[in-house]
Amino acid sequence: SSLGVNSSQALIVDLTSSVLTDLTATLAWDVTQTETGGGQYLDTTDTGVIFPDLDLELLPVSYSGGAYTLGSSLGVPGLMSKSTGLDSDNVEHLYFSSGSLNPGLYAFVISNNSGPDWNYGFSYRMDTTVIPEPGTFLLLVLGVIWACGMRRKSR
Description:
16% of the residues lie in helices and 48% in strands. By secondary structure, the chain is α+β, with helices and mostly antiparallel strands.
């Protein structure tokens, strides 16, 4: 994919029936640089040109009236990656394994805050725990009650 100047792209993830327990996501993009030392080294003195300012964040999403609306930041450090200035490079990572995120709609948001269009690659891996539906839980409880009743009858 590619991303233009001052624009964002989002990938919606539906976690309405599960709880997110572990997440790893990586965003990497092309680098424009001058080679020095006979092609062995990259000249990284102008990080503002060489490394565009792309950000990656997981945000809550609401759906209403046929449209998705991004919510505000979750405030969880592992769910946002924004490197700027001397810390800039061409990779952003999200890591989350400290607890769980409530069920709902979420979006991976990739934002370009500088430079021309940039080609990028994005990948993610999620572990979730499925939340049983109330009807499933009710059937389980009724099954246990029935099994206990059958056991009492056989005595």
